[in-house]
From TrEMBL:
The keyword Signal applies. PANTHER family: HYDROLASE, PUTATIVE (AFU_ORTHOLOGUE AFUA_2G14860)-RELATED, MONOACYLGLYCEROL LIPASE. Gene3D superfamilies: alpha/beta hydrolase. Residues 36-58 are annotated as: Disordered. Residues 1-32 form the signal peptide. Residues 83-298 form the AB hydrolase-1 domain. The keyword Transcription regulation does not apply. Keywords: Signal. GO terms for cellular component: membrane. PROSITE patterns: PROKAR_LIPOPROTEIN (PS51257). This is Pimeloyl-ACP methyl ester carboxylesterase. InterPro entries: AB_hydrolase_1, AB_hydrolase_fold, AB_hydrolase_sf.
Length: 309
């Protein structure tokens, strides 16, 4: 493994003080699909529907403004469906540095990666991290890039919550998804939320004692109101019209066997809930499937793109 490839794992380990990563994985405010405004009209820069995977161009940086802050999006032009890669909590667009070029080369599709608010080259936003805000940021970026239809979401870990909220608001933007060991609503029963809250509190208190950095501030923001937002998130469901491939890691994010099994059960239950979903186990992988088994993610994304073209 190269030095660059190992960097995301180091970032996650630095944040893993939060109770086996459970806050990092799922502390995004649950969204109310009826409380947010309709999507903006697509711009005139919509990607071409033709293209060749023979020579994928280098990505270009596009700075997007939304609600007073700036976000860094990286665009590799190509044909539809566009593939949007969204990393887990505490990570940024560099997490996909090995996967994005491969997908662009193999599929010829438009590839989009981005830094969420508070990560990478994007501005920080003060206050608790709300799902409505994260969805709004992604909408703004995709709108300004002209990618408001025929989108495939590839969402890792916490980004599964963004994806779930996003498709509830914008079902006609998304034609498919690959959910990579994603935080899914099925996990967050009252009992599991209460257990996670109790397990997290000591780690959150410890994090507050550490020097204030961009990363610690962001982790504390996503940890805010964990119980309430996840009980609300548990009520959301994935639209049955949007196909999804669910990739679950062999190890899961949890160290305890009971919690690991609950994670596997939630992934399997989600995958079994509609005929256009399937479950893939990434053997020999930790929660960092894109690092440990990039081939599994690439194959799932490419298979989804083939089905939709």
């Amino acid at each position: 493994m190269t030095e660059n490839a190992s960097r995301p794992r180091c970032v996650r380990r630095g944040a893993a003080a939060l109770a086996a990563g459970t806050v990092l994985l799922g502390s995004l405010a649950a969204c109310d699909a009826d409380s947010v405004s309709p999507p903006a009209t697509a711009s005139s820069t919509a990607p071409s529907t033709t293209g060749s995977p023979a020579a994928a161009p280098d990505p270009t940086l596009r700075t997007v403004s939304n609600n007073g802050h700036k976000l860094a999006f990286h665009l590799t032009p190509g044909h539809l469906p566009a593939i949007v890669l969204d990393a887990g909590g505490g990570l940024d667009s560099s997490y996909w540095r090995d996967i994005a070029p491969k997908l662009a080369h193999d599929t010829g599709a438009e590839i989009i990666t981005y830094d969420r608010a508070g990560s990478g080259a994007s501005d920080e936003v003060s206050g608790p991290w709300k799902a409505q805000d994260a969805v709004s940021d992604l909408e703004a970026g995709l709108t300004q890039l002209g990618a408001t239809h025929d989108v495939i979401l590839v969402s890792h870990s916490l980004a599964g919550e963004i994806a779930t909220c996003f498709v509830n608001k914008n079902p006609h933007w998304v034609t498919g998804a690959v959910l990579v060991d994603a935080s899914l609503p099925d996990l967050y029963t009252d009992a599991e939320v209460a257990r996670i809250e109790a397990a997290n509190q000591e780690q959150v208190d410890e994090l507050k004692k550490q020097p204030s950095t961009k990363q610690t501030r962001q982790l504390l923001a996503v940890a805010s109101d964990y119980g309430d937002v996840h009980r609300a998130y548990h009520q959301l469901s994935w639209p049955t019209s949007i196909p999804a491939t669910v990739i679950v890691s062999a190890k899961t994010p949890f160290d305890t066997p009971d919690d690991a099994q609950l994670w596997r059960d939630a992934q399997a239950h989600f995958a079994a809930a509609a005929p256009n979903r399937n479950l893939v186990v990434a053997q020999n992988s930790s929660h960092d499937i894109p690092v440990d088994r990039p081939d599994v993610v690439i194959t799932a994304a490419e298979d989804m793109a083939k089905k939709l073209t």
